[in-house]
Write a structure and sequence with these properties.
By secondary structure, the chain is of the alpha/beta class. It has 6 helices and 6 strands; from the N terminus they run βββαβααβααβα. It folds into 2 domains: about 70 residues; about 80 residues, Arc Repressor Mutant, subunit A. It is globular.
């Protein structure tokens, strides 16, 4: 994968600017610019794919912007962008399970742990959720505490509330 060229660009949202990293293979990262540990996400992506990430234009960036716009307008409930995961097998299993949470619904960390057949891994599921590099599309914002509380969201609880409100009002 040494020759992989990952291109980044900005995505505008009602919650602020996001950074998207794409290649001909798919979407690698979609992250709010003000997210905690933002630089760590970028660096781990470079290392995982052994690739430089350069600013540029790519047709997939425009498609990501279109689909994100449709989501915020309440017109899109499912994304059709090919996703490229960068993480451990456990993390990938968690993220694939997150993709199964329907629009407008939520699941607890415990629910996810049970679905991946590792019911004691609640804390590990929470850590995998926090390591998600593709915000909104991999809907980590739909994961809540088992008591129904809005627990952590790397981009901030205000953003999590906003995203859940969009999904519950359509």
């Amino acid at each position: 994968m040494m020759n992989l060229k990952i291109i980044y660009g900005k995505i505008e949202t009602p919650l602020g600017e996001m950074l998207a990293c794409v290649s001909d293979e798919g979407l690698y990262l979609l992250e709010f610019n003000d997210r905690k540990k933002y630089d760590r996400q970028i660096n781990s992506l470079k290392k995982y794919f052994n690739s430089e990430i350069t600013k540029g234009n790519h047709p997939l960036l425009a498609e990501v912007q279109t689909q994100i716009n449709e989501y915020f307008q309440g017109k899109r409930k499912e994304f059709t962008i090919l996703l490229k995961f960068s993480g451990t097998e456990f993390q990938k299993n968690v993220w694939k399970e997150l993709l199964k949470i329907p629009y407008g619904k939520t699941a607890s960390y415990s629910d996810i742990a049970k679905k991946i057949k590792n019911p004691k891994a609640v804390r590990a599921v929470a850590n995998a959720n926090a390591a998600n590099k593709i915000a909104i599309i991999i809907p980590c914002h739909r994961v809540i505490g088992s008591d129904g509380s809005l627990t952590g969201y790397a981009a901030g609880l205000d953003k999590k509330k906003f995203l859940l409100k969009i999904e519950n009002n359509t």
